[in-house]
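thought: fold this chain, then report.
action: predict
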Amino acid sequence: MSAKQLSWTIAAAIFLTAAGHAYADIRIGAVLSVTGPAAYLGEPEKKTLEIYVADINAKGGVNGHKITLIAYDDAGNPNQTRIFGTRLIEKDKVDALLAGTTTATALALIPLAEKARVPLINFAGAVQAVSPVRRYVFKTPHTDLMACEKIFEDLKQRGLTRIAMISGLDAFGVSMRRHCRSLTAKYGISILHEESYSPGNGDVTAQLAAIKATAGVQAVINPGFGKGPATVSRNYRQLGIALPLYQSHGVGSKRYIEMAGAAAEGVRLPAAALLVAEKLPDSDPQKKVLIDYKTLYEQKTGQPVSSFGGHAYDGLMILLDALRRAGSSDSAKLRDAIETTRNFIGTGGVVNMSPTDHLGLDLTAMRMLEIRNSDWTLVGAPGH
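observation:
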């Protein structure tokens, strides 16, 4: 072989190696709570990822390269999350993680992703899942801090300033309670009484009776997710408490309405616009994205859309957009591309990330909803 031929062979090998490294096997890892107490969050997340990965691969993948999705079910157990997260990073050699259904499971993944320098986009509700800013960690859902602000804004508009709280003792409930307390002075809100409950508690009438007996309370807030808020709502109505009840964005699924039954009527919560997609004005920049996602998800699954599946959709689309812009699955380049996401229209809002903001959403991305006739309605729309 001549020197010229040798040089061409070496150059070709380098090119193929570089191209192979750039995109040769886009491997995305997911650890989700598909079963267990957070199943109604994790199940739509997994289904969303599977639906869209299959759809994207059928259309040629990312710049001609197919995606491999490797998913594990942690059943809501942070210890299992760590095991599966380690496996995805060390054995499965994933390029990025779309993982962490709950606050507790997301927090279990964060140190793993940071140490391995693998980009992680998580789906937890608490602000700790994205603050303080960590180099390789991002998230898509609105934070519990934002949820408290949205609720407090609505309370002020209704002239309600004296509240009680009944909070779940899960990581999300504890976090949201803390953030709500931190905002009381800013919004002129007084917390007259507080109660709490364990995630598996099937009856909270004693705690709610104490709230009912507290003089001066004008509204009640329930930071929590899973079955707990449905129990709170049912017991609330059984005790005949007539005060406005607010839930968190942790109940953004028809499963909550089904579990709470008639007790969900009149409940308000801050949530993603996805839940009221058809009721948005045509001028809303999110509407087309929301309708397209809702239509495909419901056609494929036969189930109503939830904000939780939307979190996974946003995470996947942000990641794929970053892969296209980076032109590589190299972790550092991919991380940089995610961080420079601008004007991405997702189910959670319009995302603009930066080195100091790995969420990229502001308070306008949340909508205040009220449950009427077993359906979501937009507060401020005609009829409210």
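thought: worth noting. The domain at 3-142+287-362 is CATH 3.40.50.2300 (Rossmann fold).
final: tokens above.
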